[in-house]
Specification:
The chain is mainly β. The protein is built from no helices and 11 strands.
Length: 131
């Protein structure tokens, strides 16, 4: 017997109004809260499940950069164009907001620390929207 699809099994929507939204925390994305000096960390492959827009936010104690690679397939093998990038400034909140309409099923986030000291990450959140 087939089971009905339940969006809460994949992401936890927290407001069903004009726009459906869901969020992922640091641990939901498979990230840790420290990036070693002159190193990087990668998220798990994140499945978007129909969410078309997102905002990714964090604050780092060190300078660095962010790379977000979107994929057309769920396996993360077919890149949807070049990676989206942004620069991190120490102790300054960073937000990358995706508003283009290119379709994608999955993505991976890479956080690079360009400093000679470990970077502590706080306020890490991925907010996804479908409309």
């Amino acid at each position: 017997m087939s089971q009905a699809y339940n969006p809460a099994d994949v992401h936890t929507p927290y407001d069903v109004g004009q726009v459906l939204q869901a969020e992922m925390s640091l641990s939901d994305m498979g990230l840790v809260d420290t990036v070693p000096a002159n190193d990087s960390i990668n998220s798990n492959l994140l499945f978007m499940n129909g969410y078309k827009f997102f905002a990714f936010a964090l604050t780092s104690t060190q300078n660095g950069d962010i790379s977000i690679q979107r994929y057309v397939d769920r396996a993360g093998l077919i890149a949807q164009g070049a990676a989206l990038t942004g620069s991190l400034t120490a102790a300054t909140p960073f937000v990358y907001t995706l508003t283009d309409t290119k379709p994608f099923q999955s993505m991976k986030i890479t956080i690079n620390n360009s400093a000679g000291s470990d970077a502590a990450l706080t306020n890490v959140l991925l907010l996804m929207q479908a409309n």
